[in-house]
Write a structure and sequence with these properties.
Length: 481
Amino acid sequence: MSLEPPTYLSSLQNNIRARPIPWEGAVRAGNITDDHLRKIKAVDKVRREQRQQTVEADVKGYTALLAGSPDAKSVLELAFKRTDIVQYILVLSADLIADVPALASALIEHPQPYKPFLPLLRHSNNPEDPIPLLTSSFLTSLVSTALASSSHASTREEEALPQLYSYLSVLTKNQDSGLQDIGVQGFSALLCNKRARELFWKQRQETVDTLMEILRTAAAGKDTQSSTTLAGSTATNSARTADISVGGGVGLQLLYHVLLVIWQLSFEGSLVGDELHSEHDIIELYNQLLRLSPKEKTTRLLLATLNNLLTANRTTLLPVAVIVRLPALLSNLGGRHLTDPDLLEDLNSLSEMLDEYTKTQTTFDEYAAEVQSGHLRWSPPHRNPTFWRENARRILDEERGALPKKLAEILSKSWDNDKQVLAIACNDVGSLVKEVPERRTQLERLGLKARVMELMADRDEAVRWESLRAVGEWLRYSFDQ
């Protein structure tokens, strides 16, 4: 999938191409060989057609120049102390594999094509150091070409990808939205086959977590004129970023590219779906982003990702989609004047899937699904006395008390970022005690009474109130006795 090259990276590469290099002095100092110099000069500052003819006439020689050979080191390994030459060679390497596909193919067949380049990703800890940045650009291009040519990753790509993901993740964590976008576009270029996506997911604390934080910032933010980026930090006003800000100050271009990466990842829906929900509440997050989506292109990616995830995880994620009122939002979207055919196809698919699911669900089913999802919201059953009168005993009995056990698990967590979950769980425990007081010992054995009493001292007012009400039901039963 081709994306526009990031502005800052293109500017940096153009600057390096224009710099004069004292090549003869480098040969005398032993930084490069005469053979290296001949090959470099033959393709330096010449027309693309001439460069292509020169390299195609000596593919083996240029492969050895960049990746080395059994008899000689690569130019990067020999010139590693000369940062000006290293930067130039990295830019030239990227140009050569872009202009001469035959060279890219030959490098991929080399026994160790990435060996001279991978150490340069660790050249320094400064995210603005040109050397690792340029290295990541070259490696992303070459590795993605290798991945696209095969349905699986070879041992060489399996070694290179984790290191490349780690470096790109550093960029995505940067305060500068331009560097963030370079990292995100690098991810997108690499996620072109199943194994690459599996390795990306394996490193999700580095890779996915930061992307989800960007999306949460976009979903929570209201300032559409701000020039801030992730975590409210001020974006660097430079050539790296020239973008319109949307929710939370996240640039529209950055938002689109992050959504693109998560969409690519969603093709492994059965692998990632449940964890994306449990770790990031992705269905609720995407529901909110759909409400705020500024363009059809972002709406298209949101719907396509939801379609992939829900299709692969019907049992666990369809209930969550109903809880967060996704069907109503889809109905609202259907009333808009939308023209993108892929968007409309995913919208219809999602609507039909959810309509088919909701036709078979009772109020009890919806409540049970919400509890099993592990994240409670103030959905209608929680405050409905009739629901509790009719279903409290069933909640305690169903599947040998699976729902009270899940409530105990939910209450055992701190929920520092969403205290209402604790308040809702206390409400539910109190309702169970009120409707089926003779079963209170079942709840006590699960530690629910002790935990609810502990929450009476919580710093959140709603949690204190609901826990007090729940404890009150236990006390009321004791007084009645």
